[in-house]
Amino acid sequence: MRYSQYTVVLPLLLLLAVPMVAQTHPTATIALQSVTTSVKPAQLSANSLDSTKNVKATAEELLRLQEDEVKKSSASVEQLRQLYSEGLIARIELENAQQDLAAESAKVETTRSEIAASDRLASEIKKAEELAKTKPALGKPTLLRMNLSNTATILRSSSTANWSIGNLGSIQQFFANRFGHALPTTAIGQSATHDRLGYDHRNAVDVGLNPDSLEGRALISYLQGAGIPFLGFRSAIPGVATGPHIHIGSPSHRLI
Fold first, then answer.
1. Where are the alpha helices (DSSP H) in the chain?
2. pTM
3. In this structure, are residues 47 and 31 in contact, taking their beta carbons and an 8 Å threshold?
């Protein structure tokens, strides 16, 4: 038997201000905080941290439900295995139960990973709060100017506006409102991939969108309007980019 009613939409690395809804519990949502690019990073970070804690709490409750279902399914598989050995059921019944158990176990691991991602993001938000204490807030979009450098492989902004991960919430809210799903972040702050490539990515975010796609163009347009620095990679570049994506923030520097 399948228990998809306990499946929940939990953005990987959205986690900041995008609503999370259980698939069969549409009323179980987390309220969005109303933010704009003129909000001080420290205020945005505080709201984002609260949202992250709420998301983690919901994920932990989901995990308990999923683990209970895995225990029940494990017991059921053992019973069916015994019945099959006695020739009382068809092999297909046992195999179906085993497949269901494997799927439920995979959901448990996914939720555990999302909880760990919440912890990492909370740490990054706290770092952003400290950064915001020493750097001025991002100015109003209408006061910022940006020039673009467009090559066959890279689309690069020349904005010099201050940026911190604490500003990510407003971008995520824009994207969720525009497209109805989470901003597909692939790295928030430093990651194992950036460690391997040797880049300091602590104050940047990678989004898994081709800059020439519909969603990629919309995101870039928003970043331009807000004066947020970015790089758009159209393809992989050995030693620099593993594939098409949009890097939000100033270009990463090599680690010493």
1. 41-85, 91-134, 168-179, 192-197, 214-226
2. 0.43
3. no
